[in-house]
Write a structure and sequence with these properties.
This protein has ten helices and two strands. The protein is mostly helical. The structure holds protoporphyrin IX containing FE. Protoporphyrin IX containing FE (HEM) binds next to α2, α3, α4, α7 and α8.
């Protein structure tokens, strides 16, 4: 049966799961994810200003109430669509690739480009660990998950204490450093790649967008790694 004579729903499914649709879904969700990562890093970097700044920020975020849950649901949807389209594209590429071609292609691309899927798996594992650590309290709950401070007679979560106690543990700090190196590499290739998908990184814009991805990866990597590193070395949080 040709596509034209197929039922409308089947045609819609086919259009939505076409390779270009999947690539656009990856690009748009990647861009939104990169935006979140930047916003999150800027918020967290307030740990360098001190306990009050970080705890004020945490209190503000917690106080968003319903909006917070809309954002959380949005992030979950973005992540699910990003991973699902990546899996579909990897399967499609593997099915379309003639025997022996894979190796030739791998040699022509950057290290990050070669290992995007593997880096993605590391990041997925990190996200589960990270939420279990800071947000849900599955892991290391004894390191400040329930720490409180009183400001003007009102008790609030002492996130600063939680972050400092956590990153004083070398194993935790190193896990965050390694995961954020993976994130930096994933972004370095992914950000440029998504602008190529949507056609922006072409002509005289090709080089600027080729620089943007690695530059963004380095900024996020350095910013995120600086926090566990600063605590581990005693630069912040005392001893
Ligand atoms: C060194 C790097 C990072 C630090 C220090 C950090 C720190 C934190 C902290 C302290 C929280 C809990 C906030 C609170 O309870 O108020 C949190 C939540 C979260 N982090 Fe991170 N984070 C880092 C990297 C990342 C990365 C790379 C991602 C994603 C790829 C990420 C995704 C999230 C998400 C989704 C939440 C949950 C937000 C919510 O509660 O709705 N974080 N992070």
């Amino acid at each position: 049966m040709s596509n034209e004579s197929a039922p409308p729903f089947d045609r819609l499914v086919k259009a939505l799961t076409s390779t270009i649709s999947l690539k656009i879904v990856m690009a748009v969700t990647g861009l939104l994810g990169a935006g979140f990562v930047l916003f999150h890093m800027v918020g967290n970097l307030q740990v360098f200003i001190g306990p009050e700044a970080l705890n004020n920020y945490a209190e503000f975020m917690q106080g968003l109430g319903g909006i917070k849950w809309v954002v959380r649901l949005g992030l979950l949807t973005i992540l699910t669509l990003h991973v699902a389209s990546a899996v579909a594209l990897v399967q499609r590429n593997a099915a379309a690739r003639p025997e022996g071609y894979a190796e030739t292609k791998r040699k022509r691309t950057s290290l990050a480009a070669m290992y995007m899927a593997e880096l993605g798996i590391v990041l997925l594992l990190f996200i589960v660990y990270h939420l279990g650590h800071f947000t849900i309290g599955w892991f290391h709950a004894d390191l400040g998950y329930e720490a409180m401070e009183t400001v003007d007679g009102v008790a609030r979560h002492d996130l600063y204490e939680h972050v400092i106690h956590s990153f004083r543990q070398p194993a935790i700090a190193i896990t965050y450093i390694v995961a954020n190196l993976a994130l930096a590499a994933h972004l370095a290739h992914g950000v440029t790649s998504m602008f190529k998908t949507v056609g922006f990184a072409a002509g005289r814009w090709r080089v600027p967008f080729e620089v943007l991805g690695p530059a963004f990866g380095v900024i996020i990597g350095l910013g995120n790694i600086s926090m566990p590193l600063a605590v581990l070395t005693g630069l912040i949080g005392g001893n």
